[in-house]
Amino acid sequence: MINQIIEVSVKGKWSRVPAVNVDGKNIIVRGRWLKTALIHDEEWLETEVRDPNTCVDALKAQKAGGLRADVFTFAQKIPATGPKYPYAREFDSVAAIHVTSFKNWWEGLPQETRKNVRRSQKRGVEVCVKKLDASLLQDLVVLNNDAPVRQGKAFTHYGKTLDQVTRDQLDFLDRSDYICAYAGKELIGIMKLVYRGDVASILTFLPKARHNDKRPANALIAKAVEICEEKGMSYLTYGMFNYGNKRDTPLREFKIRNGFAEILVPRFYVPLTFKGEVSVRLKLHRGLLGLLPHRVITVLVNARARMHAFYLSRCSSTSERSIRNRQMECSNPPAGSNL
Question: DSSP letters of 117-149?
């Protein structure tokens, strides 16, 4: 067990936080009222927690000023869907494709999705696998700045510098591939695929919105499945299928249309304090997405999307007025001139 300081990214921003290292895995704490200890980058690691009791003992041994937490949570790794431990548990809703062969995946797709993949080919989209280099990083900067809002919320990587983009991409490079979609020389979509044993997980998935007619997103998914078959991967995962009680989103529909299905993976919650015990019993550890009804979440999500759209329209109109004002200032002669 080693207490240390590590860098973590939260909503696109890097910060240094304390951590305790147990069996090669860093445990960090998040939350204010309810402090939850979790495995840092758990969803990208090759192995799951080997001995949760060791983690629990290490956390309980933390003294005042140390890494104090109320609840410790950890999950099993696909394909281990049967609970292994007696702790309180719920289930993570993982979006996954069970990769048997590219042919089986392809034949199971809706006709419209297959058309979209073919459409990308007919419209000149070329897909290739690359390693990270200076040229790709420059293209990523441009791709990040394609749109300030994605999926109805502010895009946290919009406006980042080359140095910031480089820092974002440094993790897991030894077991990652970048699947790139090009229209001519222009990068119109990218996917960072992280290999975790016999599971491949999508860490970055960024198609260019203004090239949506070329269907780069569908082309990238198809290439990812092809690569998974070549490498003998059993599963391709893409985040969550359902996020708490948040359902029926455009992203969820996109995943379904591209062959992803829900796989329920056990997630355990181990109380470390009296507050943690009460919170787990009352399900407070679920957070708002796990407590609010779906229809309330839908209202809030739609309100957020409208707010971002209004903000963008205001910024756009302000920018246009500024440009017009500058043009008028340039065209109007200075006061007192004879022109």
Answer: HHHHHHTTEEEEEE---HHHHHHHHHHHTT-SE
Contacts of 96 (CB under 8 A, 6+ apart): 78, 235, 236, 237, 238, 241, 260, 261, 262, 263
Residue 158 main-chain phi, psi, to 5 deg: -65, 130
The sign of the torsion formed by the CA atoms of 218, 224, 226, 229 equals negative
- Please name the residue that has the structure tokens 């090239």: 211
> DSSP letter string over 261-311?
EEEEEEEEEEE-SHHHHHHHHTTGGG-HHHHS-HHHHHHHHHHHHHHHHHH
Which pLDDT does position 319 carry in this prediction? Answer: 44
CB 271 within 8 A of CB 69: no
Letter for the amino acid at 36?
A: T
pLDDT digits (tens, 9 = 90+) for 29-84: 998 889 999 999 999 999 999 999 999 999 999 876 678 999 999 999 999 999 99
Distances (CA, A) of 265 to 258, 282, 316: 21, 21, 44
Tell me, which fold does domain 100-233 have in CATH? Aminopeptidase (3.40.630)
**Residue pair 286/105 in contact by the 8 Å Cβ criterion:** no
Annotated domain spans of the chain = 2-95+264-286, 100-233
The helix (run of H) or strand (run of E) holding residue 14 is strand 13-22
* Residue appearing with tokens 């919650």: 269
Please name the residue ranges forming H helices in the chain: 52-60, 102-107, 111-122, 134-144, 162-168, 216-231, 250-257, 274-281, 288-291, 294-331
Output the CA–CA distances (angstroms, integers) from residue 273 to 49, 270, 280, in the order listed.
21, 9, 11
| Distance (Å, whole) CA 312 – CA 149 | 9
CA distance 206 to 144: 8
The rounded distance, in Å, linking the Cα atoms of 99 and 226 is 9
Q: What is the pTM of this model?
A: 0.82
Q: How far apart are CA 278 and CA 281, in angstroms?
A: 5
